[in-house]
């Protein structure tokens, strides 16, 4: 049997000019994971990552801990299908469409625009994004010029993970650095749950968390979801 570890990237830089870069806290989360793995005797045969800066940055910081401890760390293999869904583009297309057709979305946008404190802006934006993404998953976007459909995006994630499993073979340790959306899709698929569950899970996945699967050529089993036992409570974040 092989083991597949899906890691959500460390905290990104919300409301910063470049959201995609890791925050200082996100860097801490990544290094702590690396130290926990190195102390635990983890040795990986393959390391994959999406192409987003926050995903690659997390993988590199974990790898640096391994290098410093003289533990082998494989060359990172990148695959854009492991990237997060394009939230900004979805908000710009479907969100704009829903503002004109959905009173709830219009009210949430107004609340976001009127928020002044960062904490209030974050909460109101999160609620707005949650509603828009739920409509995206359900396929209720007639008249919106979307960059990609939920079906195409989620199938891309599934195909990437299937390719990783097929290429890895038996008895291997595989790390995949990705985001909450793809991890939600992986769990939803493994449990044969409705698509909307992938979106719902996404909101509860911690930065720097680990979701673990065991697999062979005939099956894949979910062993662990959203594990943050390596992180202290004051470093737990969702966004």
TrEMBL record:
Under SUPFAM superfamilies, the record lists: Phosphoglycerate mutase-like
The UniProt entry, under Pfam families, shows: His_Phos_1
Checking Gene3D superfamilies in the record gives:
Phosphoglycerate mutase-like
A GO molecular function annotation here is: hydrolase activity
Has keyword Hydrolase? yes
CDD domains named in the record: HP_PGM_like
InterPro entries recorded: His_Pase_superF_clade-1 (IPR013078), His_PPase_superfam (IPR029033), Mito_Ser/Thr_phosphatase (IPR051021)
The UniProt keywords, alphabetically, are:
Hydrolase
UniProt protein name: Phosphoglycerate mutase
- The species this protein belongs to is marine metagenome
What is the organism lineage in this UniProt record? unclassified sequences, metagenomes, ecological metagenomes
């Amino acid at each position: 049997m092989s083991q597949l570890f899906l890691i959500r990237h460390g905290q990104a830089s919300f409301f910063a000019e470049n959201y995609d870069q890791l925050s200082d806290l996100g860097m801490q989360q990544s290094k702590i994971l690396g130290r926990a793995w190195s102390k635990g005797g983890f040795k990986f045969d393959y390391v994959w990552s999406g192409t987003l800066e926050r995903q690659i940055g997390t993988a590199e910081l974990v790898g640096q801990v391994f290098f410093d401890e003289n533990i082998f760390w494989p060359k990172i293999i990148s695959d854009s299908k492991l990237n997060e869904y394009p939230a900004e583009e979805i908000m710009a297309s479907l969100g704009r469409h829903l503002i004109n057709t959905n009173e709830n979305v219009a009210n949430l946008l107004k609340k976001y625009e009127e928020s002044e404190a960062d904490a209030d802006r974050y909460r109101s934006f999160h609620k707005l994004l949650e509603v828009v993404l739920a409509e995206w998953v359900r396929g209720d976007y007639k008249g919106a010029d979307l960059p990609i459909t939920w079906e195409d995006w989620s199938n891309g994630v599934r195909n990437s993970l299937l390719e990783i499993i097929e290429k890895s073979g038996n008895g291997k340790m595989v790390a995949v650095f990705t985001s909450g959306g793809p991890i939600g899709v992986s769990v939803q698929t493994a449990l044969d749950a409705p698509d909307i569950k992938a979106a719902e899970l996404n909101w509860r996945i911690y930065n720097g968390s680990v979701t673990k699967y065991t697999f062979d050529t005939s099956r894949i089993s979910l062993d662990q979801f959203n594990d943050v036992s390596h992180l202290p409570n004051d470093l737990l974040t969702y966004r």
